[in-house]
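<amino_acid_chain>
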Amino acid sequence: MSIHEIKKAVFSNNSYELWEQAALKTLKTRTLQALYTETYEGIKLSPIYTKKDVRNSLEDSCSRGFQQNNNWRIAQKLISPDWENLKHQMLKAKEWGQETVSFDADNLLELAKLDFTELSEIYNLSATPLLLLTKYKFQMIAHKLLQIDHDHVSGALAVDLISSRLEQGYLYKLEGQTWVEWKEIISNLEAKYPSLRTILIDSTPYHNSGANAIQELAASLSEAIFYIKEMQKIGWEPQKTMQKMIFHFSIGNNFFMEIAKLRAFRILWKTVCSAYEIDLVDCNPLISAETSTFTKSLLEPYNNILRSGNEAFAAVIGGVHFLHVAPFNISDPSDEFAMRIARSTQLLLREESYLDKVIDPAGGSFYVETLTGELVDKSWELFQTIDKKAGIYSVLQSGWFQKIVKETLMKRTKDIETRKRSMIGVNVFRLDSNVKSLHISKADDNHDLDSVSIEPLEQVRLAEKCESGDFNEG
C-alpha cells in the first residue's frame, strides 16, 4: 500500500462485542476476567473503556475556562543546613530555571540567619512567588517576612497544623496556644500580604504512610472544612479562608490514577464551593505537588530518575501550579548532580514535550474520565463518613483514619514482598540484597504542653524491607 493510499484509509467502527470476541479468541478462554484488575482504591479497572463509561462532563474537570494554559512553576525545594550555602544554591538555581523561592526551612539549622532582604537581592520578591511549606518553623519565618519592607509578596508561606506531626503521633490541642498564635499570624500576614496563601492542606504525610488516592482526597477535603470552621471563629468568611488555601499533594507511581486524583480534586472542590454558595472563580484552588518519597529506593537509585519522571509527567498533566521533583539520590537530596537532574526533568517536560501548551491533556480520554468519576464518587463517600464521625481531627484522634491507611499500606507492602507488584532493582533485577535502610525523622519539641497523643502515621517507603535484607528471595 502506498503512502497516498494509507492517508486515505478508512477504518470501520467495530463494536465492543467484536473486540471481546477477538480478545477471547486470542486468549483462548471463555472469560475476560483475567484482564480486569483492582486498584488499592477498590476500583475495578476494565481492559477497555468506551464513551458509555464516561459519566462526568468535560467541564467538570474545572481546568477549562479558568486557565489560559497549562503552565506551572518550577519549585525545586533547595536543601542546606547552612544559610550562606543556601543562598549560593539559590543563585545557581535561578540561572538554571528555578522560578520560585522554595527551600526546606525545616532543614535550616540557624534559622535566625534567614534574611528576606538578602533573598530579595537574588529574587524580585514582588514578581517571584514564595513556596515555603514548613512543618515546624512557620512562626519564625512569618515573623521575619513581616519585618521586611515589601508591598507585595505572593505564593505561599504555610503550615498544616493537622498533618505536620502525624509521624510523631501528636495533634495540637484545639483552642491551645499553638492554634491561637497561628490564627494571629495568619491575620497579620493577610493584612500585609493579601496575595500570599497561608493555609496549607498537606496530604503528603498520608500518602507517605501508604494511603490510597481516595484517602488522600477525603483527608484533604476534610482538612479544608476543618480550617474553614476554625477561621470562622475569628470572623473569617468561608470564601476568604478558601482564597488563603494551598493544597499540596505527593504524586505516586500509578500514572493514570495520579492524573485522575488531581482532576478529581478539582471536581470535589467545586462541590465544596457550591455547598458554601461560592463561585469557583472566587476560590479556584492553588495546587502544589512533589514527586513521591514513598516510591523511591536506595537500591539502584538511578531507577528513581525514571520513577520521578513518570510522577512529574502525571503531575503536570493533572494540572499543578507548583512542582518539586525529588532528587534521585534519596540518601543525599542536596547532591548537586541529583538536584540538576531533578530540575532538568521539569525543563524537559516543558521545553521539549510542550506540556504547558495544552490545558487538561488527559481530558476526553474514556479511561481517565471514568477513573476520575470513580475517584470523585468514592472520595466523596469517604469524606462524608469522616464528616459523620465529627471530622478529620476526631478520626485522627480516635485512630480510625490511621487504621484504614495502615490497612492499605499492608496490602501494598505484601504485594511488593510477594512480587505481585514489581519494583525494578528492588524485588526484580536486584543486584545488592542488603543495603542499610534510611529513615529520617524531624526533631519535635514541646509536644507535651500543647498536644494530644494519637496513633502515629509513620512515613515509610515501599522498598525498605527489601533494602534491609528482610525479604524472602524465594
